[in-house]
UniProtKB/TrEMBL annotation:
Signal peptide segment: none
GO molecular function annotations of the record: oxidoreductase activity
CDD domains in UniProt: MDR (cd05188)
Transmembrane segments: 176-202
Keywords annotated in UniProt: Membrane, Transmembrane, Transmembrane helix
Full protein name: Enoyl reductase (ER) domain-containing protein
Organism of provenance: Acrodontium crateriforme
Length: 362
């Protein structure tokens, strides 16, 4: 039976517990007519996986494979002619279901269900195989390795919606400020915004991460640990456009307070997460400047297709921080979670499960 990795229940309170990883076996799941079986070649971590292990994410379910990001090869198809066309194809998997194309949010009455670790969607990519509807697949970009392709789905989709859809400012010459550079979403946002000709600036608590971001196309960066970084950022902006048009943020915290000092009147904060705190303060300065705070989640099936197409057209590559190999390598996989826990990563953390031909890594 195919193997997968899930979390194992131990005693502990949410936020204090850290559930251990557990190798499980799953029953063979033959594909229905419009389904295929994907041999997973690589899977990648996201912050939600870290939160699941802390029991800080809704719907935590033990025995459901972890992870939403994955790439692989179609090794078995259902009986329909449409499914058979996918035989042998390299694919990336849409990381969530229940949201087809509505720009405002998921259409499904049950809401949006992300893959990995919850009862909402009992499929996860940290598995040898995944049986899934063909409607949830896109061909993997040909210029990407399996490891790079696995780093794309959730991160790319989240960055795409926050930057290219919700910010309204992914345009040539606009000034876009991306906080917390080093995480997968922030780095994809940098690649997307730079690819359309925006002036991208970043923040980090690490000078090394700022330097690496510049190599990827950022015009400049500031260390948020330094007092008065806002003035330093404004001094970097072009003379013909002296304020920031949009902020892409996944931290929350004091982003409104700080953002009001650097944004133009009518500027946008596109918020795709709140890793610092589940609350933020709205102040009068933001009101007087007509600043818009726009929440941004992952994205629709249509936006997923748009994102993959753009990555293909622009020949973009997700940034990889570190890779470990093998389903049995629980110590190595735990090490990736440690990287995420302490914030040391620059890019995606990936587990290679099989080679490019689908041969499993032990």
């Amino acid at each position: 039976m195919p193997k997968a990795i899930a979390i194992r229940k131990i005693d502990g309170k949410p936020g204090q517990v850290y559930y251990p990883l557990d190798i499980i076996t799953q029953p063979e799941q033959p594909p229905k007519p419009n389904q295929v079986v994907v041999k997973i070649t690589a899977a990648a971590l996201n912050h939600r996986d870290h939160f699941l292990r802390q029991h800080l994410y809704p719907g935590v379910t033990f025995g459901v494979p972890l992870l939403a990001d994955g790439s692989g090869i179609v090794v078995q198809t259902g009986s329909s002619a449409e499914a058979k066309q996918w035989a042998g194809k390299r694919v990336v998997i849409n990381p969530g279901t229940g949201w087809h194309s509505d720009p405002d949010g998921p259409e499904a009455p049950t809401g949006y269900a992300i893959l990995g670790g919850t009862k909402a969607n009992p499929i996860g990519t940290l598995a040898e195989t995944v049986t899934i509807d063909i409607s949830e697949l896109e061909l993997a970009p040909t210029h990407l390795t399996s490891i790079e392709a696995a780093a794309l789905p959730l991160t790319g989709l989240t960055a795409w919606r926050a930057t290219m859809v919700k910010s309204g400012n992914a345009k040539p010459g606009r000034n876009i400020f991306i906080t917390g550079i080093g995480g997968g979403v922030a780095l994809m946002a940098l690649l997307f915004a730079s690819a359309v000709g925006a002036n991208v600036y970043v923040s980090s608590g690490s000078e090394d991460k700022i330097a690496k971001a510049k190599q990827l196309g950022a015009k400049g960066g500031v260390n948020y640990k330094e007092p008065g970084w806002e003035k330093k950022l404004l001094a970097m902006l072009p003379k013909e456009r002296k304020l920031v048009d949009a902020i892409i943020d996944g931290a929350g915290g004091d982003v409104v307070e700080k953002g009001a000092k650097i944004l133009k009147a009518g500027g946008v904060i596109s918020c795709y997460g709140m890793t610092v705190s589940p609350k933020m303060t709205w102040n009068m300065n933001a009101v007087l400047k007509n600043i818009e705070l726009r929440g941004s989640t992952m994205g629709s099936r249509k936006e997923f297709a748009d994102m993959v197409r753009f990555v293909n057209e622009k020949n973009l590559k997700p940034v990889i921080s570190r890779v470990v190999s093998g389903m049995e390598n629980l110590e190595g996989i735990d090490g990736l979670f440690e990287d995420m826990k302490n914030g040391s990563q620059f890019g995606k953390l990936v587990i290679e499960l099989a080679n490019e031909k689908g041969v499993s890594k032990l």
